[in-house]
Amino acid sequence: MKLRQLLIPAVCGALLALSGWTPRVLAAAPPLPAGCEPDGAMRFACGPANAEDLLRIGATRWLLASGMDGALMGSQSARGHLYLVDHQKKSWREAFPGDSPAFRHDRNLYGDCPGPLDTANFSAHGLSLREQARGRYRLYVTGHGAREAIEIFDVDASGPTPAITWTGCVLLPDDVSANSVAILPDWGFVTTKFLDRRLPQQESFAQLRQGVLNGAIYEWHPGSQVRAIAGTGLSGPNGIEVSPDGKTIYVAVFGTRELVRFRRGADSLQKDSVKLDITPDNVRWSANGKLLTAGSNYAGAGVAPVAGWSVVEIDPATLAARRIAGAERSPGMQAISVGLAVENEIWVGTFSGDRVGYLLTR
Length: 362
Fold this sequence. Notes:
4-stranded antiparallel beta sheet; 5-stranded mixed beta sheet; mainly beta
């Protein structure tokens, strides 16, 4: 599958126009495919198509990567994937759908889901993972394609290689083109409405460039409907994470280039934010209790995009932010959409590329 066929030009062009890219080094890996040579300090695992989001499966050697394909807004055919990446061996494999995708519908939690996803028209976007029992997890995936939904999977990591089984879905409102998702303690979720599906895609992206409040945070709990959270209007809310108790929500806002924190009380919603020098994409927790977000370096309004990217660490208590990795120019990998801390490495993914990257932290 050719790279340029993976995302429609309107998506890539609009995101890259707000964009940027960086690297560091690692030990010997299997023979490198052609075009997969190191780029300065950065090394690559080449092959995964449009690995827009990354997360680690517990403390295992396995990372999960989402594989986007097709349009963000809809209906045309998409052949997305979920990938497993071995961060020790620097190798990868397709996890879903593969040759024989597994389906087991959990009707107790996801009884309103009309049935299994269409593997011939599915695009995987944002990811969220929560442990159910030792070695067993539930994975929520922002899905596009035949339907706009949060697709749910069981992940069995008790064996040598994790096994992934589709287990349910929650359909999203007609106006929501979702980006990221975070699981709540009751197995509900919050998700970001990044674009309005009722508008032409070009018009939706124009709103982002102008900082228009076109999106919000939506919430679902088992047995209820998906609803917007009042007071969370934002311009292109993108990555999302929650505190362990689910009461604090952290959102990377693409249109206004900030990290927003919503602290929820019984009848209140407190909003705080910090401006960033990137167009932030996904948000990930680190083992040290800090948040990581990543995206393209921002040169300023009316200035040509800077060829570079950064991973930024944010203190969830103070919202103090500092750049911990990045590159001013990186021909090997650009359009960075996620930064994930894995032991002494930072792994990065992209919404438009054929690889994931990794570099050592100091």
